[in-house]
Design a protein that fits this description.
Blueprint: E1 5-12, E2 15-20, E3 26-29, H1 32-46, E4 57-61, H2 63-69, H3 75-82, H4 86-94, H5 101-132
Parallel strand pairs: 1-4
Antiparallel strand pairs: 1-2, 2-3
Helix pairs in contact: 3-4, 3-5
Amino acid sequence: MKKKIIVTIEKTDTGFSACAKDHPVVTRGSTMNELIDNCIEAFSLYFEDREFYPAELSFEIDFQQFFRYYKVINSKALAEKIGMNPTLLSQYVRGHKKPSPDQSRRILYGINRIGQELAEMSVLYKAKKLKEGKASINSDENNEIQ
């Protein structure tokens, strides 16, 4: 089996960026899906002299940068939510330690759970306003309440 290509993902003001650890490949995308597609395309071009398989890529999140960007996420509260030692998560957030792939999945799961809970609250708010007859859903891509 070929050695995995480590690609570090960062959150930016315009979306996401990715850079490879051992290869001169850098790309960006406005969404995570676009970023991954762009990574696959960039590595396909980089390895044009050999066959490239997307499964060779191993994506990592730069947690220190992620938590700096999303200051609203409290690492201590997240640690409690996912059953992780708050001091350990703090060390990941500060860049003093690097989480294992399992710990990274655990952290991302917790972040995704928070996002889902917040999205559900938005849906509940919209449903309540519609039920009260005080709102209408706009048909644009943001589905904002008007």
